Amino acid sequence: MRRPLIAGNWKMNKTVTESIEFAKGFIEAVKDVTDRDIMIAPPFTSIYPMAEVLKGSNVYLGAQNMYFEEKGAFTGEVSPIMLKDAGCKFVILGHSERRYIFGETDELINKKVLSAVSHELIPVLCVGELLEERELGKTFEVVERQLSEGLKGVPESAEFVIAYEPVWAIGTGKTATPQLAEEIHSFLREKLTELYGKSKADSVRILYGGSVKPENVEGLMAMKNIDGALVGGASLKVDSFEKIVKFG
Ligand code: PEP
To answer: What is the pLDDT of residues 80-99, one digit of tens each?
Structure first.
């Protein structure tokens, strides 16, 4: 019912030259994939040059962040209008590295989510608990707060994606077990049902992120409420990202 979405988050990796080289090889590798969506979020500098290479392909582009204003005196920031114009369809918002390295709050992330949907960019809202929050039994409370605060004011008609990324599993090689991830995904879908009703909640894709690799993607994707993956490290090489995209 929900079309899977496999998304790569390159973080601060790859020059323009490296990005273009990847894009050329990757298009060829995934050209026959038609039953799922594929997205790559490169660094800002690579978005436009990659859009030129990916034109007409089945690979969408996303950004890893944006500011909520359209333009103006916001040194160092990039706007939703700029991202759309450069070729983005998606924008990752509230990634844990934005929250915990750059101090982004739920309130700021909510402004960005609202701005993204009003500019017809699809936000991928990331939620996830820190290791200490999990150990204190606060996982449900944390992800519920991040979800409801992040989506405040977002209308049912807006398309958005949620990514559950337990912070202790990002870049650490520690993946949540499929059962543990599914427990949170089904909880998030229940919360979406409370916020938007069942039909909308059933249509929202909830991705899992945190050390997804070719070896663990099958188990995760077999879960009822896991609708895709947000992949960091393993999206940087054509062969590993291709294997993840082609799960199943
Ligand atoms: C991420 O950056 O969103 C991520 C999940 O990273 P990794 O796959 O490297 O854990």
So the answer is: 999 999 999 999 999 999 99
Decide: helix, strand or coil at residue 136: coil
**208-246: string of b/e by CB count within 10 Å (b at 16+)?**
bbbbbebebbeebbebebbbbbbbbbbbbebebbbbbbe
Tokens read off for 12: 């601060």
96 is in an annotated binding site: no
94 Cα–ligand 1 center, Å: 13
- Tell me the pLDDT of the chain averaged across its residues: 97
pTM (2 decimals)? 0.98
Are the beta carbons of 131 and 167 closer than 8 angstroms? yes
pLDDT digits (tens, 9 = 90+) for 166-204: 999 998 888 889 999 999 999 999 999 999 999 999 999
Total domains, the chain: 1
Distance of CA 153 to the CA centre of its chain: 20
Residue 34, phi-psi category: left (phi > 0), alpha (psi -120 to 50), beta (remainder): alpha
Active site (annotated) includes residue 185: no
Structure tokens at 6: 């496999």
Residue 86 sits in a domain whose CATH number is: 3.20.20.70
Q: Which domain holds residue 81?
A: 5-245
Closest-CA residue, ligand 1 atom 2, reads 232
Per-residue pLDDT reduced to its tens digit, 118-161: 999 999 999 999 999 999 999 999 999 999 999 999 999 999 99
How far does residue 67's CA lie from ligand 1's centre (Å)? 22
pLDDT value at residue 173: 85
231 lines ligand 1 (CB under 6 A): yes
Out of 99, 212, 220, mutate this one to test ligand 1's pocket (max ligand atoms within 8 Å of CB): namely: 212
